[in-house]
Structure prediction request, 192 residues.
Amino acid sequence: MARIAIIDGHPDADRARFVHALADAYAAGAEAGIHDVRRIDIASLDFPILRSAKEWREADPVDTIHKAQIDIRWADHLVILYPLWLGDVPALLKAFLEQVMRPGFAIDETEPEQPARLLGGLSARIIVTMGMPAPFYRFFYRAHSLKSLDRNLLRFVGIAPVRYSIIGGVEKGSGHRKHWLHRIRQLGQDAR
Prediction:
Protein backbone atom coordinates (compact mmCIF):
# COMPACT_ATOMS: atom_id res chain seq x y z
CA MET A 1 0.00 0.00 0.00
CA ALA A 2 1.39 3.40 -1.04
CA ARG A 3 0.79 6.87 0.37
CA ILE A 4 0.11 9.15 -2.59
CA ALA A 5 -0.08 12.96 -2.66
CA ILE A 6 -1.74 14.25 -5.82
CA ILE A 7 -1.02 17.86 -6.81
CA ASP A 8 -3.65 19.03 -9.28
CA GLY A 9 -1.75 21.89 -10.84
CA HIS A 10 -4.43 23.36 -13.09
CA PRO A 11 -4.88 26.98 -11.99
CA ASP A 12 -8.51 27.14 -13.20
CA ALA A 13 -10.93 25.79 -10.57
CA ASP A 14 -13.53 24.97 -13.28
CA ARG A 15 -14.06 21.21 -12.82
CA ALA A 16 -14.63 20.83 -16.59
CA ARG A 17 -10.84 21.07 -17.12
CA PHE A 18 -9.37 17.76 -18.29
CA VAL A 19 -6.50 17.90 -15.78
CA HIS A 20 -9.07 17.77 -12.95
CA ALA A 21 -10.67 14.67 -14.52
CA LEU A 22 -7.24 13.05 -14.78
CA ALA A 23 -6.51 13.83 -11.12
CA ASP A 24 -9.89 12.29 -10.20
CA ALA A 25 -9.10 9.21 -12.31
CA TYR A 26 -5.69 8.74 -10.70
CA ALA A 27 -7.20 9.14 -7.22
CA ALA A 28 -10.02 6.68 -7.98
CA GLY A 29 -7.54 4.13 -9.30
CA ALA A 30 -5.28 4.57 -6.27
CA GLU A 31 -8.19 4.15 -3.87
CA ALA A 32 -9.32 1.04 -5.77
CA GLY A 33 -5.77 -0.27 -5.37
CA ILE A 34 -6.11 0.22 -1.59
CA HIS A 35 -3.63 3.11 -1.51
CA ASP A 36 -3.96 6.13 0.78
CA VAL A 37 -4.52 9.39 -1.11
CA ARG A 38 -4.27 13.04 -0.20
CA ARG A 39 -5.04 15.79 -2.72
CA ILE A 40 -3.73 19.29 -3.18
CA ASP A 41 -5.75 21.39 -5.64
CA ILE A 42 -3.72 24.53 -6.24
CA ALA A 43 -6.65 26.37 -7.85
CA SER A 44 -8.36 26.42 -4.46
CA LEU A 45 -5.34 27.57 -2.43
CA ASP A 46 -4.67 31.12 -1.33
CA PHE A 47 -0.97 31.94 -0.96
CA PRO A 48 1.34 34.82 -1.84
CA ILE A 49 3.96 34.81 -4.56
CA LEU A 50 7.56 34.86 -3.33
CA ARG A 51 9.44 37.94 -4.45
CA SER A 52 12.97 37.47 -3.05
CA ALA A 53 15.48 34.80 -2.10
CA LYS A 54 15.43 36.21 1.45
CA GLU A 55 11.68 35.67 1.65
CA TRP A 56 12.11 32.09 0.31
CA ARG A 57 14.77 31.31 2.89
CA GLU A 58 13.50 33.15 5.94
CA ALA A 59 9.73 33.74 5.84
CA ASP A 60 7.44 31.17 7.40
CA PRO A 61 5.09 29.56 4.88
CA VAL A 62 1.40 30.44 5.16
CA ASP A 63 -0.93 27.78 6.57
CA THR A 64 -2.08 26.44 3.17
CA ILE A 65 1.53 25.90 2.11
CA HIS A 66 2.43 24.34 5.46
CA LYS A 67 -0.48 21.88 5.09
CA ALA A 68 0.71 21.00 1.58
CA GLN A 69 4.19 20.36 2.99
CA ILE A 70 2.68 18.02 5.58
CA ASP A 71 0.85 16.11 2.83
CA ILE A 72 4.00 15.85 0.70
CA ARG A 73 6.14 14.73 3.67
CA TRP A 74 3.49 12.08 4.50
CA ALA A 75 3.58 10.62 0.97
CA ASP A 76 5.96 8.14 -0.57
CA HIS A 77 4.71 8.89 -4.10
CA LEU A 78 3.93 12.31 -5.56
CA VAL A 79 1.76 12.92 -8.65
CA ILE A 80 1.88 16.34 -10.30
CA LEU A 81 -0.63 17.12 -13.06
CA TYR A 82 -0.70 20.29 -15.15
CA PRO A 83 -1.63 21.69 -18.56
CA LEU A 84 1.20 22.98 -20.72
CA TRP A 85 0.79 26.76 -20.81
CA LEU A 86 3.01 28.87 -23.05
CA GLY A 87 5.32 25.88 -23.30
CA ASP A 88 5.81 25.53 -19.55
CA VAL A 89 4.30 24.90 -16.13
CA PRO A 90 1.43 27.33 -15.32
CA ALA A 91 2.60 30.28 -13.21
CA LEU A 92 0.38 29.38 -10.24
CA LEU A 93 1.85 25.87 -10.05
CA LYS A 94 5.36 27.31 -10.28
CA ALA A 95 4.55 29.79 -7.48
CA PHE A 96 3.16 26.92 -5.37
CA LEU A 97 6.28 24.80 -5.89
CA GLU A 98 8.51 27.76 -4.99
CA GLN A 99 6.55 28.19 -1.76
CA VAL A 100 6.59 24.49 -0.86
CA MET A 101 10.17 23.55 -1.76
CA ARG A 102 11.89 25.76 0.80
CA PRO A 103 15.07 25.28 2.81
CA GLY A 104 14.35 23.21 5.88
CA PHE A 105 11.62 21.29 4.08
CA ALA A 106 13.05 20.26 0.71
CA ILE A 107 16.75 21.07 1.11
CA ASP A 108 19.19 21.68 3.93
CA GLU A 109 21.51 24.55 3.08
CA THR A 110 23.90 24.18 6.01
CA GLU A 111 26.52 23.00 3.48
CA PRO A 112 25.99 25.55 0.65
CA GLU A 113 28.30 23.76 -1.79
CA GLN A 114 26.28 20.53 -1.46
CA PRO A 115 22.76 21.10 -0.05
CA ALA A 116 21.21 17.98 1.48
CA ARG A 117 18.18 16.63 -0.37
CA LEU A 118 15.46 16.23 2.24
CA LEU A 119 12.80 14.53 0.09
CA GLY A 120 14.80 11.41 -0.74
CA GLY A 121 12.75 8.22 -0.78
CA LEU A 122 9.84 9.93 -2.55
CA SER A 123 9.04 8.93 -6.14
CA ALA A 124 6.99 10.98 -8.59
CA ARG A 125 4.91 10.93 -11.75
CA ILE A 126 4.36 14.07 -13.81
CA ILE A 127 1.26 14.15 -16.02
CA VAL A 128 1.15 16.98 -18.54
CA THR A 129 -1.63 17.76 -21.04
CA MET A 130 -1.42 19.81 -24.23
CA GLY A 131 -3.14 20.52 -27.50
CA MET A 132 -0.19 19.58 -29.71
CA PRO A 133 0.68 15.94 -30.42
CA ALA A 134 2.79 14.42 -27.63
CA PRO A 135 5.61 13.23 -29.96
CA PHE A 136 5.98 16.77 -31.31
CA TYR A 137 6.39 18.11 -27.76
CA ARG A 138 8.72 15.27 -26.76
CA PHE A 139 11.02 15.34 -29.80
CA PHE A 140 10.80 18.81 -31.34
CA TYR A 141 10.56 20.78 -28.08
CA ARG A 142 12.46 18.08 -26.15
CA ALA A 143 9.82 18.11 -23.37
CA HIS A 144 11.67 20.98 -21.75
CA SER A 145 9.09 21.84 -19.04
CA LEU A 146 9.10 18.24 -17.87
CA LYS A 147 12.88 18.06 -17.86
CA SER A 148 13.15 21.34 -16.01
CA LEU A 149 10.64 20.29 -13.36
CA ASP A 150 12.34 16.91 -13.02
CA ARG A 151 16.02 17.92 -13.01
CA ASN A 152 15.92 21.43 -11.60
CA LEU A 153 13.45 20.76 -8.82
CA LEU A 154 12.32 17.21 -8.09
CA ARG A 155 15.68 15.44 -8.38
CA PHE A 156 17.43 18.43 -6.80
CA VAL A 157 15.42 17.85 -3.60
CA GLY A 158 15.91 14.06 -3.74
CA ILE A 159 12.72 12.88 -5.46
CA ALA A 160 13.48 9.89 -7.71
CA PRO A 161 12.55 8.06 -9.78
CA VAL A 162 10.41 10.51 -11.75
CA ARG A 163 8.16 9.11 -14.50
CA TYR A 164 6.19 11.04 -17.13
CA SER A 165 2.87 10.78 -18.91
CA ILE A 166 2.59 13.22 -21.82
CA ILE A 167 -0.97 13.56 -23.07
CA GLY A 168 -1.17 15.39 -26.37
CA GLY A 169 -4.12 16.21 -28.57
CA VAL A 170 -6.49 16.76 -25.65
CA GLU A 171 -9.02 18.38 -28.00
CA LYS A 172 -9.26 15.23 -30.19
CA GLY A 173 -12.53 14.15 -28.69
CA SER A 174 -14.17 12.03 -26.02
CA GLY A 175 -12.71 8.70 -27.20
CA HIS A 176 -9.16 9.99 -26.82
CA ARG A 177 -9.94 11.41 -23.40
CA LYS A 178 -11.64 8.19 -22.23
CA HIS A 179 -8.56 6.23 -23.27
CA TRP A 180 -6.33 8.48 -21.16
CA LEU A 181 -8.69 8.51 -18.18
CA HIS A 182 -8.62 4.71 -18.18
CA ARG A 183 -4.84 4.63 -18.52
CA ILE A 184 -4.29 7.17 -15.72
CA ARG A 185 -6.73 5.32 -13.47
CA GLN A 186 -4.64 2.16 -14.01
CA LEU A 187 -1.45 4.04 -13.11
CA GLY A 188 -3.16 5.14 -9.90
CA GLN A 189 -4.22 1.61 -9.07
CA ASP A 190 -0.65 0.42 -9.55
CA ALA A 191 0.73 3.50 -7.70
CA ARG A 192 3.05 4.30 -10.63
In short: The mean pLDDT is 96. The first strand starts at residue 3 and ends at 8. Residues 136 and 157 are 29 Å apart (CA to CA). The helical segments are 18-32, 53-58, 63-74, 91-100, 134-140, 144-154, 174-189.
